[in-house]
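User: Show me a protein chain along with its predicted structure.
Assistant: Here is one chain, sequence first, then structure tokens.
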Amino acid sequence: MASYRIRTFGDPVLRRRADEVTDIDGRVAKLAQEMHAAMKEANGVGLAAPQIGVSKRLFVYEIGDSGPRTVINPVIEDAEGEWEHEEGCLSVPGLWFHITRAKRVRVRGYDLDGKEVSYEGEDMEAKLYQHEVDHLDGRLLLERLDQDQRREAMRELRRRAQGEHAGQASAAGR
């Protein structure tokens, strides 16, 4: 079982730019391993460190047959084309939106051995890289919505929060 819980909309750590990783050591490797476990437990394909409350620039992912990967201090070097697809987020659970992103991207960073890596992705993989780097920059996919979509999403998030508060108040009264 993962030792971290996934932070959701409203948590301030999701709104801050994450700090660069300065030392790639055993602590970072352990963090990546725990992040991967949390991601799998939540049925995700990618997870950025801020999503578990750690303000560090790294993300983990597993898409297709890539096996588990970690990208530390990622930078999107190249982006081309345009692609719209339905996108969700573990930090905004249960909501999905049509988001337009670059169709192809190349991300550069470091692996857990401190070696520079570069991955190119198209469609789903490109979307994943962009989504996770957005998290590291303190951006949620809600910021990529048009005004009407964002208003509807915020209305739904408020409705859910009120339902949770009502449930907590009811449980406290027992």
